[in-house]
Amino acid sequence: MNVLLALVETLNKPQHSLTETELSNARSDLVELTEAGFKLNWLKTMLDEVSLDRNKENIADHGSQVEQHIKERVGGC
Asked: Cross-referenced PANTHER family, in alphabetical order (predicted)?
């Protein structure tokens, strides 16, 4: 039960404050709980949404970095 409570607390944190390790641990805990018989589709959906939003942020950040790099290269020519 403590694992479930810790998982819910983790997913209630602001998305920007979650580390990749926390998300990975949350996914592992979710697998462990579902294998133990807990029906946690709602929690899986919540974790998937957090992961998806986080990936979108990372892609946007990477795109901005690439754009900045290109501007620096073009400006330096």
From this structure: MATH DOMAIN-CONTAINING PROTEIN, TRAF-LIKE SUPERFAMILY PROTEIN
User: What is the tens place of the pLDDT at every residue in 17-48?
Assistant: 888 899 999 999 999 999 999 999 999 998 99
Q: Taking the alpha carbons of 49, 41, 4, 37 in that order, is the dihedral positive or negative? A: negative
pLDDT tens across 51-77, in order? Answer: 888 888 878 777 888 888 888 888 765
